[in-house]
Design brief:
The chain has 214 residues and is mainly alpha-helical. The chain has 8 helices and 2 strands; from the N terminus they run H-H-H-H-E-E-H-H-H-H. Helices cover 71% and strands 2% of the residues. It has a two-stranded antiparallel sheet.
Length: 214
Amino acid sequence: MTTKETLKLILHATVVFGVLLVLAFCTFVDFANGNDDHDHIRADIQLNSEMWHRLEEKRIDLLDHYNEYNTIVQLQKDYSETNNKLRQSISGKITTMELMQCQAKLEGFYKEGSIAQRQNNPCNTRRSYHWSQEERIGYYPEMGALGFLKFKTVDDGFNACTGVPEFYAENRPDITLNSYIWSFSPDGREESYVAYVTKCLGVNGSEKLKDLLQ
């Protein structure tokens, strides 16, 4: 083999070796990048898992607080009803607010999202032509859903509600508690309304409203 042929063979071998070296380098880079991408993905998975667990802990904590809140609200209602009955067993009297609270419970005011709650109208009071809500709360309430009034605050709603039994007690002195409850009960549900409110108050519904209110 001549020197020229030898040099030519060496040159070819060098080129082939160089190509192989480049291919090997590219393969290594791709592999390294692939591992790097995998590492990023694993890191993202780990981070997402940690965030999910944190959110789950927060959700459980909020749920515990929500359940605790509902328990407290229910206990308050239970204690309020117990005190009402204890006071009534001594005096045989009820306050207008006690009557309104029983009526509000019947109307679903203490249930989250109820119409009575959304409209700040504990007793689902409608427009009255016998007395003025405006005089009691300082403004004319707007008409809300299902024909019930919508008040700006819960206090306004309770204040307006108390005007109803007070009006009846003053202007219809012979009306009984049963008859008063009957007057605002939906058609076909009068008896169940009367039974519920009188049981809630712990009084005899046949008594005159003006004699029961103190």
